[in-house]
Design brief:
The complex is a heterodimer of chains A (219) and B (490).
Chain A lengths: L2 H24 L3 H26 L2 H29 L11 H18 L1 H6 L8 H17 L3 H23 L4 H29 L13
Chain B lengths: L1 H20 L9 H20 L8 E2 L4 E2 L2 H22 L7 H19 L3 H19 L5 H34 L7 H7 L5 H18 L8 H8 L2 H30 L2 H23 L4 H22 L1 H33 L10 H4 L1 H14 L6 H15 L3 H26 L25 H23 L1 H9 L6
Antiparallel strand pairs in B: 1-2
The chains are: A mainly alpha (219), B mainly alpha (490).
């Protein structure tokens, strides 16, 4: 892989990651959110594959395929199934409207650039200057998690946070050791699995659930 | 020695698999206790082998596992607390449930992995695995409230711990820039002086905040009272008694890296803020609490806050006190959650107002409840008295006198809050008409008095909590080695 092709691939992948994160805040349809998540997973896999080829790590190329299988195919597919079963295709009343959501996302991106200055200055990896994109994903994931009421949207928020952390890991250090990487992926899959079961049980117990209405336990 | 590192992981896993394969067999019930005893025994054996200071530290799995004195001490704590909780569960008549036992075994194995791991990444995976295994245990009763508690627990727990992973990733980037990419705790400590301070500060701060979420420190504590009050009694005991301490153990390990890389001031400031906030939350909410299981949960936030302050103070005395406090609090808290479960079964309500005159009507329930509360509140001769005094003295001599005065005031408020509720439940005349029970089992006839067999785990736990202080002096060598593992010497 030539130097300029590598730079272009990294730029495209991080651009896609940022774009899909910002669109998450804008779109209210849960179907669209799931598709965006799949694109985001594919962009992450592209990023990992490019870094692997550029650095000549066969291990990283393997991880790229694992990431593609789970984050671009399996998890979005599972979420799409959940949406189909529960019949909730829209996030009814997010706590912020799309315009203020987009403004907040812009603010969070600025914050991410400010916070990650020491990381960029470290310049460890071939693409460390794209690190703020990863932190933006983390912060936007938080925004989605905090402002959405539907179980499936909160799971999507959680997965965006996780994609952001993975982006930082690959951009700064070419990924953490393989055993940790696989453990993390397994944990994420299990968390999504558990949240699916819990939300199904909640719906079984009392119909459509607005998570912000879960207020029986309080002081 | 290497086998001792595998034992606490392999035995619970195998026992759990056995329980999951024969889900309704009666022999599956004691398997959880067997797993707890296996962890306790291997911890004690490791502790005996490691001390006195020095000697080679056993490692396994390509240095991913490492059993130094601190690890051994934590294994003993996990084993002892789990023994109390699961032994008491065993003497409670209930039908066998293989899934429940299997999840408890998996939970115990993941806590053991967390303290055995010499790799921050593996430690993280293990702590996240505790969230996964306990999620179903919290939502075990499948009612609306327990599902609500389980949802909040999984979302807040996973997101909080995800932040810790971001911190770990950033630390890894710092080691890579220093020319030696590693997540090994030993190598991180050795490398600490060469890490870029700005990046390390970001990494340590995020990792500490993430693990503090799991340790139930304010202001990231909101999941804790819900999860701990809704889980079945032995699970609450395990989560409050030892899972919180395992998360704090991760912070202890981070501290030894942070002190070398950034100086002692940085993490001390962060932890003091978290600790004092936790004590404030506990003081405010125990005063007005109306549910005795939530009261215990807030008491856990109080104790975690105090331990965080102990970690913040650092140094020989405070660190030793924190370790003894972990064991003493774990034993008493798991016994108290078991007792709360028994009171709930007998009285049919978890509301303080519905339970009156317990020591007159049911001295078998009221007596241990009262004694356990005294232990939690830090009355001598229980170990928590000595550790609390030690933490305050250590803080005072470290020049934190104003903070310590604030801590004492908040502890006093919590003392008033908890003792007010518990005295309302136990003392006073028995009401002529008992409140309408919500659980059917106790509707027909009063439950039989608890016999010696049922009281034995409680007595054992409270006795051990008295002895913990004396034992700490007896086994001073082991504790000294554990604290020395953190780079602290007297």
């Amino acid at each position: 892989m030539t130097e300029s092709l590598f730079a272009q691939t990294v730029a495209t992948a991080t651009g896609l990651l940022m774009l899909t994160a910002v669109l998450q805040v804008w779109r209210r349809s849960t179907d669209a959110s799931t598709k965006l998540l799949a694109i985001q997973g594919a962009a992450l896999a592209l990023l990992v594959g490019a870094i692997g080829l550029a650095e000549g790590h066969a291990e990283l190329v393997l991880i790229a395929f694992v990431v593609l299988a789970f984050k671009a195919v399996a998890l979005p597919w599972a979420l799409a199934r959940t949406i189909e079963r529960s019949g909730i295709h829209r996030e009814d009343s997010p706590a912020v409207n799309p315009v203020s959501g987009l403004l907040a996302a812009a603010g969070l991106a600025t914050l991410a650039y400010a916070v990650s200055r020491p990381l960029v200055a470290l310049d460890t990896g071939p693409a460390a200057h794209a690190v703020p994109a990863g932190l933006t994903l983390v912060l936007v994931g938080f925004l989605v998690l905090l402002t959405r009421h539907r179980a499936v949207s909160q799971v999507i928020g959680f997965l965006v946070i996780d994609n952001g952390i993975a982006t930082v890991a690959f951009l700064t250090a070419g990924g953490v050791p393989l055993v940790v990487e696989l453990g993390v992926l397994l944990d994420v899959v299990l968390v999504v699995f558990i949240l699916r079961i819990l939300s199904a049980r909640l719906e079984l117990a009392h119909g459509e659930v607005d998570l912000h209405d879960l207020r029986e336990l309080h002081d | 020695m290497t086998a001792l590192l595998w034992l606490p992981l392999v035995v619970p896993t195998l026992l759990g698999a056995a329980a999951a394969s024969r889900r309704s067999a009666t022999w599956t019930r004691p398997l959880g206790l067997a797993a707890a005893l296996a962890i306790l025994v291997s911890g004690l054996a490791l502790l005996a082998g490691v001390t006195p200071t020095g000697g080679t530290v056993p490692t396994a799995a390509g240095d991913l596992l490492r059993g130094d004195a601190l690890t051994a001490y934590l294994l003993v704590t996990i084993g002892a607390v789990a023994t109390v909780a699961l032994w008491a569960d065993l003497v409670t008549p209930a039908p066998p449930d293989g899934w429940f036992t299997a999840l408890v075994c998996a939970f115990l194995a993941s806590m053991s992995l967390a303290v055995l791991a010499d790799n921050l990444g593996v430690l993280w995976v293990a702590i996240e695995a505790t969230t996964i295994t306990t999620a179903f245990l919290v939502g075990y009763r499948s009612g609306r409230r327990s599902l609500e508690a389980a949802w909040k627990y999984v979302v807040l727990g996973s997101v909080g711990v995800a932040i810790a992973f971001l911190g770990i990733v950033i630390l890894y980037a710092a080691t890579r820039a220093a020319g030696h990419p590693t997540l090994s705790l030993v190598e991180l400590v050795a490398l600490a002086g060469r890490l870029d301070p700005a990046v390390t500060r970001l990494g340590i701060a995020l990792a500490t905040l993430g693990f503090a979420t799991k340790a139930g420190l304010a202001p990231m504590h909101s999941w804790l009272p819900d999860a701990h009050s809704q889980a079945p009694a032995p699970v609450s005991g395990l989560m409050s008694g030892v899972l919180l301490s395992v998360a704090l153990y991760a912070v202890l390990r981070l501290r030894s890296i942070s002190d070398l890389a950034l100086g002692p001031g940085f993490l001390r400031g962060v932890l003091l803020v978290l600790g004092v906030l936790s004590l404030t939350v506990a003081a405010a909410l125990t005063l007005t609490q109306r549910d005795y299981k939530r009261l215990l949960a807030y008491s856990s936030i109080e104790h975690m806050g105090l331990m965080a302050i102990g970690v913040a103070i650092g140094g020989w005395l405070a660190t030793t006190a924190v370790l003894v406090h972990m064991l003493g609090h774990g034993l008493v808290k798991s016994a108290m959650f078991v007792q709360a479960g028994r009171i709930l079964r007998a009285e049919g309500s978890s509301s303080v107002a519905d339970v009156v005159g317990l020591s007159a009507r049911r001295p078998d329930l009221g007596g241990p409840w009262l004694v356990g509360t005294a232990a939690l509140l830090g009355f001598p001769p229980f170990a928590l008295f000595f550790t609390e005094v030690a933490i305050v003295i250590a803080g005072w001599s470290a020049g934190l006198a104003p903070v310590m005065l604030l801590v004492l005031a908040l502890l006093l408020l919590t003392f008033v809050g908890i003792s007010r509720q518990v005295l309302a439940m136990t003392l006073g005349p028995a009401r002529a008409e008992p409140p309408a029970p919500q659980i059917e089992a106790s509707a027909e006839q009063p439950a039989p008095r608890l016999g010696l067999r049922a009281q034995a785990p409680m007595v054992a736990a409270l006795t051990a909590a008295v002895l913990a202080g004396a034992l700490a002096l007896q086994t001073g060598g082991a504790l000294a080695a554990a604290v020395a593992g953190l780079g602290v010497t007297p």
